[in-house]
Design a protein that fits this description.
Layout (H helix, E strand, L loop, with lengths): L3 E6 L12 H13 L2 E6 L2 E3 L6 H23 L6 E4 L2 E3 L7
Parallel strand pairs: 1-2, 2-4, 3-5
Length: 98
């Protein structure tokens, strides 16, 4: 069976409008696997304007790192899930659009 790659999922828990918990992320990944998805690229929201404020950037990246660590630790203990890759959905909010 050919495996599908999902390139847009919000599965890092608690960092945007996607998954609220590790458990919810694991449930979503298990469902995705049953639908033939073998690889998931999780893409939390990232505002490009954060690059103008070092402390805001560090705080946001820290949220991603903490959520990613929790999720990947749980995935390592849960067989039969898709491969998870890390990406970002970048909102190009700088410069401001007319």
């Amino acid at each position: 069976m050919a495996r599908i790659v999902d390139f847009h999922s919000h599965l890092i828990p608690g960092v945007d409008d996607g998954s609220r918990s590790v458990e919810q992320s694991l449930e979503s990944l298990a469902l995705m696997m049953t639908q033939g998805i073998g690889t998931v690229v999780t893409t939390p929201h990232f505002d490009a304007s954060l690059t103008r404020d070092a402390s805001a950037l560090a705080a946001r990246l820290g949220e991603y790192d903490r959520g990613w660590a929790l999720l990947t630790e749980a995935i390592a203990r849960t067989p039969g899930l898709p491969v998870l890759k890390r990406g970002t959905e970048v909102m190009l909010d700088e410069p401001d659009v007319d």
